[in-house]
Amino acid sequence: MFHFAIDRGGTFTDVIVKLPSGELQVLKLLSVNPEYPDAPREAIRRVLNTPKGKPIDHSQIGSIRMGTTVATNALLERKGTTTGLVITKGFKDVVDIGTQDRPDIFDIKASRPKPLYDDVVEIEERVIPATSTGEKYVVRKAISETDVREKLKSLLDKNIRSLAVILCHGYAFHEHELLIERIAIELGFDHIAVSHKVMPMVKMVPRGQTTVVDAYLTPTINEYVRNFRSGFANSEKLNKKILFMRSDGGLTPVESFFGSRAVLSGPAGGVRGYAAATYERLEKKAPCIGFDMGGTSTDVSRWAGQAEIVYEGRAANVQLQVPQLDIQTVAAGGGSILSFRGGLLQVGPESASAFPGPACYRRGGPATVTDANLVLGRIQPDYFPKIFGPNEDQSLDKEASLKMLQELANSVNKAEKTKKSVYEIAEGFIRVANEAMCRPIRNLTQARGFDCRTHVLSCFGGAGGQHACAIAKSLKIKTISLHKFAGILSAFGISTSPIVVEKQEPAGSKIMDEDNLKIILANLTRLAESCKDDLKEKEFRDDQIVLERFLRLRYRGTDFPLMISENDLQGSSSSDWTTEFTEKYTKEFGFHLKDREIFIDDLRVRAEARTGAFSESKKRSGMLNSIGQTELFLEGVQKKVKIFNLEDLPAGSEIVGPAMILCGTSTAIIEPSWTVKIDTFGDIFMHFSETEVESENKEEKVADPVLLSIFGHRFMSIAEQMGRVLQRTAISTNIKERLDFSCALFGPDGGLVSNAPHIPVHLGAMQQAVQFQLTAQKKLVPGDVILSNHPEAGGSHLPDLTIITPVFIDEDKPSFFIANRGHHADIGGLTPGSMPPMSTSINEEGAIFRSFKIVSAGIFQESSLVAHLNEPAKHANCTGTRNLADNLADLHAQIAANVRGGQLVKELIEEYTFTRVHKYMNWIQAAAEDSVRNLLKNSVKRIGAEVFDAEDFMDDGTRISLKVTINPSSGDSIFDFTASDPEVYGNLNAPRAVTYSAVIYCLRCLIGYDVPLNQGCLNPVEIKLKKGTILSPSETSAVVGGNVLTSQRVVDVVLKAFRAAAASSGCMNNFCFGDGSVGYYETICGGAGAGPGWTGTSAVHTHMTNTRITDPEIMENRYAVILEEFSIRKGSGGAGEFKGGDGVIRKVRFRKPMDASLLTERRVNTPYGLKGGQNGSKGNNLIHKSSIGTLMRLPPRCQLTLETNDMIELQTPGGGGYGDFATKRNAESQPRRRSKRLKN
Questions:
Q1: Closest by alpha carbon to 31, among 42, 45, 20?
Q2: Do the beta carbons of residue 505 and residue 603 sit within 8 Å?
Q3: Do residues 1037 and 989 lie in contact, with contact meaning Cβ atoms separated by under 8 Å?
């Protein structure tokens, strides 16, 4: 019998066939080719020698295992099925709004993908938790069959035949979703995705997005399967032989292959491939890093004996809540476009894709990584498939690659006044690409507490072998594995994968104790038997089936559950589960919550059955002979190297680099200091010998553009890893879940070197904080750590606590500084949450730290810290911190993040020397400075003036005024805010550091491409602030609103001055509520302003914030509230040629008395339109008083006591429009005439 394993990728389809003789045959075809309708079927036809046009006889086929990018490509290209969304009333837009954050904080458009569904109907039904723990649910409003039937018919009338059904709390209360499903089946819908069946887990937004993906993609997959089968005789009997790879690394029959589980189908095969090809063959087991470099991107993953499964991830900017292998993707692949901007060599994120592809593909494409490899000799056209040109019969065009790379070299040499050869530039781009690909590997390992150096690097994908040695060297990995099928390892992995059945159901958030566990274990047994029965129906025996049972556990009050396997327990009691959960939680997050109750959220069973259909034969002995020679450009010089054919190399062969090995479907470059050994299966293992002497640490007078780009990646990687440590080890919702924190690296002068893209309002402010401490702290010693939050000390507002750690390198003064800033939920003051809307003095806003050594010479100053946190109680109507335990835990996490940052800086110095790192810190700042200077000079040309101004007003009438003066020759500029109004009696006063953050944020957005965010951005800018004004208030002024409200207005004024975009919602819409036992704080999104060429995005956080919002189901389970509505406020964006984005409506009903506060803006003055665009709608704050049946309007800032059943309604502002609306109307009214003129 023939057994096929197929990976249908976007560009190539890879096939491994086990022939009846037991031998393996390999094929590689273009996935799209006019010569055949379907690549996998064409491969099967060729192997079976079926004449073209005749049905394929599948009687000799034992199995067809397939991974496919059909679902992935349909998602990326938005070519899925027309889909309707059926959702609880009040939540029609919640799937689109998502978590309200924007993917790229410096994208002035705040771009976000459009929803996958085409229409939505809201169902009159509502289920709510009966208690705050969510143990039981009650029907607040019963569902009406008549209502459901009418609304589903309205979708059918629009020819919508695929449905996504998502009801609030449907994961636990199934009846209403099942009723909708039954009626939809009766009405004849083709596909119905029901949320509790797609993924029965809490969180309405990710479950809803996953359900929409399922409805959008599954019909597309079914259509593909039908087309695939259509070329076979007796095709109706083929289904039993077809298995598809799912995102979790398991095979499943056709009837169980759904869209939501198919998005990572291809990459999952690769993980399974290196698990079998590398990990299982290591004599001494070591964890492996998978490095899969393809055409448009690179996937990295980790395998340490078992699959690392995650339950939430993102694909094509869509959140998926399904079991999936933990695979991280970076936009750097063979097709990544090379460019030179801002003094930096840049690789990606743009890709040449399959069409036109790289320049060498003979379709007029741009210079790419593939072209650089071709120019360097790492790809040999003579040994590459001849599938290019108009007749698809030509080899790669090296001359085209040389031409495009030479143009880039000319640009670099002209800008940098250097004389680098085209080969040096090409190698430089490869080094930058390698560093870009190292970043996700570091995040997958170092940022999670794993040491890269203990891993084996398993490289695969078409380009993986060309970069393997350089990647491993950068990560200090000493062993590389390269399978003989490295170019098609996903297909090999699919051949080795088990058939998987999984079942999961919610447990109802039961407390972990013996009584509840007894019930849960009985349900686990029931699920396990059901999984076994499903596999037995497929004719598997008990001895072929392996079961694994899981419970998904979490601490009360947290949203970070962990899936715990019963296989890891010492026993089966509740204490065994608790012990394992505690140990795993501590390992994952760096701490555990003592005496906190543990909840059981879900139970899950995974059953695997292995078929053993494929196996590899061992390599025979023979002679070690090369097949030729070539020239490679390596380490700055041309070197002659031997070429070997892997297929000809006998087991036990050893080759010392440099060399090239052709692996059939890929090429391996063996760099100097690496030695290859061929194992018994004919696979490559490379080992590094530490004989190499670093030759690059020479005296440099000017920056090397290659190293400048590499250091840019390394500095950013340090800040990113700090952020992951902080998120992992923090305890509070604000830091761990809302991601309200920032991390950064600073030079010895306190100047910003690198800031990870976290919260924009922190960007320039932390530099002010670090530089203040240089004066405040006369003597710092190793082991000192400083805590600060005062506005005069570079603080933004008091809840933002900044931790600053000096880093010493063989000197008696700091060589660097590491800092992070995190928003604490409470630090005392007038109100819970430390965001009092009516404060008039900073003393009412919480604990104050100007320059406090929280760690002195390595000793944590806990008693003094606690005293400071309780000090607000000395002021009238104030208390000290209301949550001391969380404060201490989060501060420990912030200190730990800085420790990690310091370690990474020292590792960088060990690699490149102290002097060199310092130089490149300065040069990376100079590169950013040049980009800003160019921006400012170009702005003079664009605007037609050297001096321009703008002003806007806060709701209380306070004016913010800006005059910008730019020297058109040098790019030096003055941002003069001195005409702004005096500080206010209230809390809208913005610390000086906030204005610095707003200006640096605006400049970075206006540049429009990726440049390092650092002190250099402000070097050409002089910011003038007048003491005693709203932007430079006195020392005791209240400032809590300045950080979250005035900061947004400053951005609006800067962008208005530069004529860059209409105003966005201009407000973070702060909403707090609580009582003596709980407290809650959120910021709510609004509409983004439109600009030249783009429409404003609706319902998104803009400018100075980017925090996430709590999921509706989590909110209702945790707090005594009902979220009645969260929807887009249609029509609130300003009209114009390009319309402003709409704000949102958010209605929260209270189930018991609570205190609440609102801190908002743009309730009086509307967000401005630009260039004739109309203003966006102002916001509204309303209260529905249940006791008297009255709707009342609330002021922008207020504090109030709520009664049971009262409801707060926030209508957030829309963004301003851009351009005269008449222009758009006229353009739309004459499309045919314009079309005719074009034809003539």
A1: 42
A2: yes
A3: yes
Q: How far is CA 298 from CA 13, 593, 1083, 1138, in A?
A: 17, 37, 35, 36
Closest listed residue to residue 842, CA positions, set 1052, 1017, 987, 693: 987
Q: Which of 1209, 23, 1092 is nearest to 616 (CA)?
A: 23
> Can you tell me the distance from the alpha carbon of 71 to that of 245, in angstroms, rounded to the nearest whole number?
12
CB atoms within 10 A of CB 849: 22
Q: From CA 490, how far away is CA 498, in angstroms rounded? A: 14
**pLDDT interval class at 621 (50, 70, 90):** low
For 685, the 3-state DSSP assignment is: strand
**Parallel, antiparallel, or unpaired: how do β-strands 479-482 and 456-460 relate?**
parallel
Question: What CA–CA distance (Å, rounded) separates 826 from 849?
Answer: 14
Q: CB neighbours of 882 closer than 8 A, spacing ≥ 6?
A: 826, 828, 832, 1079
Which ranges in 545-631 belong to alpha helices (H)?
574-589
User: Is residue 1069 a contact partner of residue 1179, using CB atoms and an 8 Å limit?
Assistant: yes
Top mean pLDDT of 644-658, 758-772, 932-946 is at 932-946
Provide the 10 A C-beta neighbour count for residue 1019.
18
Half-sphere exposure of 303 (CA within 13 A, CB side): 28
- The separation between the first and the last C-alpha atoms of the chain, rounded to the nearest angstrom, is 62
Predicted pLDDT of residue 622: 65
The torsion angles phi and psi of 663, rounded to 5 degrees, stand at: -110, 25
Nearest to 821 by CA among 848, 856, 787: 787
Helix (H, G, I), strand (E, B) or coil at 546: strand
The H or E element spanning position 540 is: none
Q: Tokens standing for 904? A: 């990474």
Q: What is the predicted pLDDT for the residue at 693?
A: 44
Residue 1042 DSSP code: I
Reported as a pLDDT band with limits 50, 70 and 90, residue 1233 is very low
CA distance 1122 to 1044: 26
* Each residue's pLDDT tens digit, 168-197: 999 989 999 999 999 999 999 999 999 999
CA distance 202 to 508: 10
Return the structure tokens found at 493.
Answer: 């992995």
Task: Report the sign of the C-alpha dihedral through residues 766, 772, 777, 778, in that order.
Answer: positive
CA pseudo-torsion sign 626, 627, 632, 637? positive
Structure tokens at 294: 């393809």
pLDDT band for position 341 (50/70/90)?
Answer: confident
Task: Band the pLDDT of 1219: cuts 50, 70, 90.
Answer: very high
Mutual angle of helices 145-156 and 175-187, in 10-degree steps: 50
Task: Note the pLDDT tens digit of each residue in 229-277.
Answer: 999 998 888 888 999 999 988 899 888 888 888 888 888 888 998 998 8
Domain 499-609 sits in CATH 3.30.1490: yes
Tokens (6 digits) for 775: 């004066």
Q: Is the pLDDT of residue 1020 over 90?
A: yes
Residue with tokens 């005024």: 961
Q: Answer yes or no: are the C-beta atoms of 101 and 1101 closer than 8 Å.
A: yes
Res. 669: pLDDT tops 80: yes
Pairing of strands 61-68, 2-8: parallel
- Chain Cα centroid distance, residue 740: 15
Non-local CB neighbours of 765 within 8 Å, separated by 6+ positions: 794, 795, 796, 821, 991, 993, 994, 996, 997
**How far is the C-alpha of 221 from the C-alpha of 28, rounded, in Å?**
22
Helices then strands, each counted (H, E), the chain: 27, 54
Chain-centroid distance, C-alpha 755:
17
Amino acid at 212: V
Quick count: other Cβ atoms within 10 Å of Cβ 680? 12
Measured in degrees and rounded to the nearest 5, phi and psi for residue 1238 equal: -65, -40
Domain span(s) for CATH 3.30.1490 in the chain? 499-609
